[in-house]
């Protein structure tokens, strides 16, 4: 079988994604030792992240040149709003957070930077930019889920097991595979400089993913929060 665009992307992002598996937050989910306050912060930030991420699917759907691609994006959008975000709503309920409070989460600097970047690149260019913007998100979470599920006890953990099962599940794998298939389809026949631009989006979003794990681990909001201010 000839090389796919995702094979080339994998070679670029592999070192960054391997660092996710070594990250204390991700390891804490896998071995069940993660501090719950850190997870609560992550889950709230991730919920508002997923709202913006869903908009990227909506942009992809609007830019789609054919009904098949439009349907693919619509299904990815639906899967995120229902299956994936339901996981967050369930965790929020365990923390005594209502859906309304969850949706009203104040975004951190990292979450704002990451989603602003994704939304910006997906508004520019064609439908392939929207696919590139979400690819690392879907694929890397599935990569992490499939690794963590191999850790003894990870899938059965009384608190973090749901997270591990969800991101390693067949349904989530299908989401990741659909994103990979879309980028491979749209990369076909593109010029090298166009492929380079798509690769750059996938590498940058992979770096943002790492920053997101850092934000969660350190319970970060905005670095300027340390400054006494009356502005708010
Ligand atoms: C930050 C982030 N990136 C990716 C995913 C997987 N959709 C997520 N839930 N959150």
From TrEMBL:
Its EC number is 3.5.99.2. Pathway: Cofactor biosynthesis; thiamine diphosphate biosynthesis. It catalyses: thiamine + H2O = 5-(2-hydroxyethyl)-4-methylthiazole + 4-amino-5-hydroxymethyl-2-methylpyrimidine + H(+); 4-amino-5-aminomethyl-2-methylpyrimidine + H2O = 4-amino-5-hydroxymethyl-2-methylpyrimidine + NH4(+). CDD domains: TenA_C_BhTenA-like (cd19366). It is an enzyme of class 3 (hydrolase). One of its GO terms (molecular function) is thiaminase activity. InterPro entries: Haem_Oase-like_multi-hlx, Thiaminase-2/PQQC, Thiaminase_II, Thiamine_Salvage_TenA. Pfam families: TENA_THI-4 (PF03070). It comes from the Bacteria. PANTHER family: BIFUNCTIONAL TH2 PROTEIN, SI:CH1073-67J19.1-RELATED. Belongs to the TenA family. This is Aminopyrimidine aminohydrolase. The gene is tenA.
């Amino acid at each position: 079988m000839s090389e796919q665009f995702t094979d080339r992307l994998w070679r670029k992002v592999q070192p960054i994604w391997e660092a996710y598996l070594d990250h204390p937050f991700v390891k804490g989910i896998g071995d069940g030792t993660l501090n719950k306050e850190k997870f609560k912060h992550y889950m709230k930030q991730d919920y508002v992240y997923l709202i913006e991420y869903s908009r990227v699917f909506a942009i992809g759907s609007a830019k789609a040149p054919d009904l098949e691609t439009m349907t693919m994006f619509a299904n990815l959008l639906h899967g995120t709003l229902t299956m994936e975000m339901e996981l967050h709503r369930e965790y929020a309920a365990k923390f005594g957070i209502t859906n309304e409070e969850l949706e009203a989460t104040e975004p951190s600097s990292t979450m704002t930077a990451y989603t602003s970047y994704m939304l910006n690149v997906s508004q520019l260019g064609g439908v392939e930019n929207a696919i590139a913007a979400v690819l690392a998100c879907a694929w890397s979470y599935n990569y992490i889920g499939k690794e963590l599920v191999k850790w003894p006890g990870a899938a059965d953990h009384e608190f973090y097991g749901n997270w591990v099962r969800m991101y390693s599940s067949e349904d989530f794998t299908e989401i990741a595979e659909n994103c990979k298939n879309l980028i491979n389809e749209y990369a076909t026949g593109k010029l090298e400089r166009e492929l380079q631009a798509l690769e750059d989006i996938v590498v940058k979003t992979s770096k943002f993913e790492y920053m997101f794990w850092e934000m969660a681990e350190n319970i970060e909001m905005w670095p300027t929060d340390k400054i006494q201010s009356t502005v708010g």
